[in-house]
Amino acid sequence: MLKFSKPVKTGIAAILVAVTTFGALAPAALAQDRDHRDDRRDDRRGGRDNDGRDRDGRGRPEWRGDRHWDGPPRVVVVRPRPSYYRYYAVPRTRYYQSVRVYRPYGNVYPGFGFYYRDSDAFRFLGLTALSIAVFNQLNESQQRAHEEAILEATSAPIGEPITWNVGSRSGTVTAVRDGTTTDGRQCREFQQDVVIDGRNTQAYGTACLQPDGNWQTVNDD
């Protein structure tokens, strides 16, 4: 039988206590770290800081319960370009009557959806920030059809998919939940799907209706 001196026995006992303590605490620590990661992922998804407030500091929405749509998807009716429209490029970031117009991806042009003038699309220009990277693979007609689906999803029943199909590209926009901020703004979270060559790209973003009737995104895209 091995014999250990007193200092060695003390050291072994300390190691055993440390191992036992770590074994008891590790699951809780891992669970806490996972919860923190989930919180950070939720914050990024909704464009929120870790204190639970929107980037503009006015508080995140209190979401209502999820609802399910049992009917068929609504299909975007593609409208022809108006005769007055002539394409011209505009900056990716600009302002129109104090509304930030921001298309980080895809084509840049005046208006939104099938509104070809900024003045006609004024209420929805803030939704341009919902642009996603896959827009780089869409032409203007396809991109405008997707934006039209976003526009229609702002007032569609929660869970109703708004679909579009132009050429070889298609997509869906669905308002997946809605809620109200502490200062009374109505907000919606949108799920966007774009299908290219059989591959689906999905993204989420949140927008809130401002007191002046304009939509403003609060996600961090």
Key words describing this protein structure:
221 residues, 2 domains, alpha+beta, two-stranded antiparallel sheet, globular, 9 strands, single chain
Walk me through this protein's architecture.
With 221 residues, the chain is of the alpha+beta class. It has two domains: 1-46; 62-217, no CATH class. The chain contains two helices and nine strands. It has helices at residues 6-46, 140-153, and strands spanning 62-63, 74-75, 93-96, 99-102, 161-166, 169-180, 186-196, 199-209, 215-217. Strands 1, 2, 5, 6, 7, 8 and 9 form a seven-stranded mixed sheet that branches. A two-stranded antiparallel ribbon has the order 3-4. The longest helix is centred in the first third of the chain and has 41 residues, at 6-46. The protein is globular and about 40 Å long. Residues 12-55 have low confidence and may be disordered.
Radius of gyration: 25 Å
What share of the residues lie within helices? 10-25%
- Span of the ends, CA to CA: 67 Å
Strand tally is 9
Question: How many structural domains?
Answer: 2
How is the secondary structure organized here?
Blueprint: H1 6-46, E1 62-63, E2 74-75, E3 93-96, E4 99-102, H2 140-153, E5 161-166, E6 169-180, E7 186-196, E8 199-209, E9 215-217
Parallel strand pairs: 2-5
Antiparallel strand pairs: 1-6, 3-4, 5-6, 6-7, 7-8, 8-9
